[in-house]
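Follow-up to my post from last week.
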Amino acid sequence: MNHQDIISQKIEFLNGNRTNDLSPETLIMVKQDPELASEIEFVEQLWKQTELDRVSKPSAQMQARFYQMLSHAQSAEATSHKATESAKKASREPLLVRLGLFQPAFQVLLLVVVFGLGWSLNSNKLSQQTDRSAVLENKVEALNVMVALSMLGKDSTAERLAGVDYAKNVSLDDERLVDSLLALLNGDRSSAVRLSVVDVLAQGKQHDQMQRKIVDSLSKQSNPIVQVALVELLQNYSKLSQQQLQTIFSNEQLDEEVARLIKQNFAPQSKTI
Amino acid sequence: MKIYRLKATLLMLVMCALSSIATSANAAERSVSHNLELTDPNKPAKIDVSLMSGKITVEGYKGKTVKIQATVNDLDKVKEDSWGVNVNTHVNTKMHGDAGENRPSTKGLKRVKKTNVNIDIEERNNRVSIESHNNRDSIELILKVPFNASLELEVNKGQGVSVTNVYGEIEIESVRGPITAKGVRGSIVAESSRSDMTIVFDEFNLEKPSSLTVHRGNIDVTLPSKASALIDVKNYDGEIFSGIEAEFKNVDKVEKGKSKGHQKITIGGSMQANLNGGKQKLLLNTFRGDMFIRSK
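User reply:
Got it. Predicted complex:
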């Protein structure tokens, strides 16, 4: 037995292909030969190092059992694959997914989220726009009042008429405008202007102070057309007091027909007037 | 700036400017004429006339000056002629109140007829003002003005106002006399208390509203068939006759019955017609009188 045979037996043993290690007689020979002993030692060291990195392989029986089990498992899986898969999915996936509505639902949800986000953002914008619109409207209204006041102060009767017509489209909340209209009603030389003013005042708020001013104006008017228009306007207000009626009838220029109408409509129970 | 101020008596004019004076044979009638140059003949003139009594006649013409002719009649004579009233043309003691009763005797004295004409004429930057506050005489004023002039005419009593072919803005107020305006192209605002009014539009102005008001009297208005007017009518006691191609509709809110303890009724009412789109307003107001609305 030479050195090569002894090293081969050792490797076979280490590799599991030989159940018995070197015999005692072979070990004596190794001890007596330092070169051989050195080579056997190198093989053992090398094998130990390799053993650390090596994964233990299953035995042939184990592999056979494993592959048998695998075969059984694959056959069983093949027969019940669909049912098993659907059962597994059914137990894990949500109802919408099972019903095939997941994508549309997601789209709807996305839309709702986007809509909500947009609504939230736009509601802020809308409120801001509303505020801006209100401010703008106030500015426009103030501008309209100024234009109307300017037109009402013109020398030309036609322009004042145009101004009164303009004032019909302006809110009568502005006291300056109402005062200017009342000044025209009581002092403009043109009956047409005064008459148009009555039309504008008819669109305004009805309150006691305005009623007093109308009564006061009626006591000054000379033109029966304007007198009648004011009587019509007064009918939008509450009943006239006896003192107010006396104020009206103190107008020496009050037309007889107008006086009759006033008696008929505002003092039906009064026999003293 | 050019300012004309003419405050003349007939006597002064006889002495100073015989050529511009024509005195009629009738001692009760005097006449004066004047040709007034404008500051800027190329710009429109504004003519403002105010008379206490008489008649104003204005006619548009191609020239660039304002021609003024004034004829003065004793108001007493006018009363006899036009009103048929016989008024004592001599001393009327009642006019002088208590002092008249103790008036000194006029025996042996001749009454000297007043021959003065009190008319103030002023021109300032094309704005002409003609005024007379003479309450005892009736003044017939005839003016020829450039076509594009604007007018503001006022006469308190007398024979009213007549305007022909003046295309600017017109304002007329005649308390007792009739108003006639023909060939109107600008806006017109006219008012009469006790006489009829006749207005003929050549064009209906769209820049400013027009208004015709008569307290007691008729309104006769003629519009071009193509006029775009929103005609607003207030007529409390009278009829409306229309020849325009637009229907008049009631625009008043009428509430009948009783409300809050008092009865609400409708007096008169307002009617409106939209002619060719109604781009500008024409206001027609009468208290007692008929309306004639024509188309040409």
